[in-house]
Amino acid sequence: MARFGLLQLNGLARMFVLGVLAGFSVVSILTYGYLSWENLHSTVHNRAENEIDKPTSQPHIIFILADDQGFRDVGYHGSEFKTPTIDRLAAEGVKLENYYVQPMCTPSRSQFITGRYQIHTGLQHSVIRPTQPNCLPLDNVTLPQKLKDVGYSTHMVGKWHLGFYKRNCMPTQRGFDTFFGSLLGSGDYYKHFKCDSPGICGYDLHEGENAAWEHDNGIYSTIMYTQKVADILASHNPRKPLFLYLAFQAVHSPLQVPSKYLEHYKSITNLHRRKYAAMVTCLDEAINNVTLALKKYGYYNNSIIVYSSDNGGQPMAGGSNWPLRGSKGTYWEGGIRAVGFVHSPLLLNKGTLCRGLLHITDWYPTLVTLAEGQLEENLLLDGYDVWETISEGMPSPRLDILHNIDPIYTKAKNGSWQAGYGIWNTAIQAAIRVGDWKLLTGIPGYSDWVPPQTFSGLMTNRWHKERVSWDLGKSVWLFNITADPYERVDLSHLYPHIVKQLLLKLAKYNKTAVPVRYPPKDTRSNPQLNGGVWGPWYKDDEGKNSLVTNLLSKKNGGQKMKTKKKLKKKV
């Protein structure tokens, strides 16, 4: 490709690699956990040499999404956690240190897979609940669909959380050739069982569109998903382009982990933090094994590995975003500023930091372009192609981020049009970043600065936590994030002209918003009515008209508005 040159192995290197990587089974890799690089030298590669010699010109794309990993919870951000693989891959690649996601699961996943803001898909409120007749709108062209158009084999392993109430919503109907994982937002790591409420419980492990009962062997999901990835890599031809979306359940609650990983963290007195730390280390080991499998089966030299968390950590469940403010579920930096890096032999500037402004919507146009695909204007993307920013250190084409506008979230009691200078009702929860500036309105969410080990062992008392003294009349905040990344100094009263500019930007975005999709629960979703399994319950020939009506919130009825935003041409 013109944008980057493929690394070609010379004859001596090929002989070395073939001698190094031979015939060690995937099962062995995953059974014994970490393999040292020395141990790898004893393996026997079972690929034909010509499969390595002639890779596709299109890169293999491996996107790894961690769940609820806090900004602090990685070794290279100063954590006490042991994450040697993540630290090494990040150090050898490009660390993304001005990278943003959404504050919860569904919003981040929907924006990754569509390249569009929540306000343009109707998913701007909360997450998709298991009992809701709701999913990622079917009129959105997904990232795997675009990659399939240019010859990619597309596979998903892990957590979906983009809705499943009818068959057309399932991953294999949204562009993935194969799917192995869970449909819900959380569940038991061993039994793959989830209760949404008392009596509403079911099994949630699927292969394709069916319950994967035969895989119900009590294997910890982080290990099981890694084994599945290795199986996919072993069976695919590396001369053909591969897209692998690996969305780990870890490290979302419930806090469960094999006991051997707890041995590393006896010094952590808080049991929640200790278990969470062990889960992160197990996750790091899984990523090591995925990397080894990529090398073993001939993918690595033509691969791009992207690592991202889906949102900030939850302190009550062991996570830490220190020194950032806030937590998962909030629009403070601790909820939306994520751990992220790119690791690839194809990067031009390896071992660097990227401080350009990036957002999870940017992966869609970036990866489609790298895959030699087309970005039609009618996709109405909100993301930008940021490969040159990451790989070459060029300025980011992104100048702003709409963090969200949620018109049905609890309104700030003291918010008003007057507080928003007649431009915006500050009772509405919203957040936007423009250049160095960040504006929040409404109720941004839990806002304390929470250092690690803040909570006692019993989780009943807090210590060393900085509480916020609220002005009861406040509904607008302004921060210079470049100068004050920890959001300690509110500047809204000093720079009213900046506040007005950002409020005007919010109002402009809001004109392109579609109605919120947040329907009430459907009793037909009960797994006990569907063989004890969480899965599609709505039949396309039943009540189509009533379902369409139900999909729109009563507070946000109306016809879907067309966004006027056009995809900017990429440099």
Structure report:
Helices cover 23% and strands 15% of the residues. The two termini are 16 Å apart. The longest helix is centred in the middle third of the chain and has 26 residues, at 271-296. Helix 8 runs parallel beside helix 9. It is α/β, with parallel strands linked by helices.
Topology:
Blueprint (H helix, E strand, L loop, with lengths): L10 H10 E2 L3 H6 L5 H4 L2 E2 L4 H5 L6 E7 L17 H9 L1 E3 L2 E2 L4 H10 L28 H7 L3 E7 L18 E5 L10 E5 L2 E4 L2 E2 L2 E2 L9 H15 L6 E6 L23 H26 L6 E7 L23 H4 L3 E4 L8 E3 L3 E2 L3 H8 L16 H6 L7 E7 L22 E6 L2 E5 L34 E5 L15 H15 L33 H7 L21
Helix pairs in contact: 8-9
Shape verdict: globular
**Strand percentage, roughly?**
15-25%
Largest sheet: 10 strands, mixed
Q: Spatial order of the strands in the main sheet?
A: 11-10-7-6-12-3-13-14-4-15
Mean pLDDT score: 87
Poorly predicted residue ranges:
4-53, 458-465, 543-571
Oligomerization: single chain
Family: Belongs to the sulfatase family.
Cofactor: Ca(2+)
Domain Sulfatase N-terminal: 59-371
Pfam family, one: Sulfatase
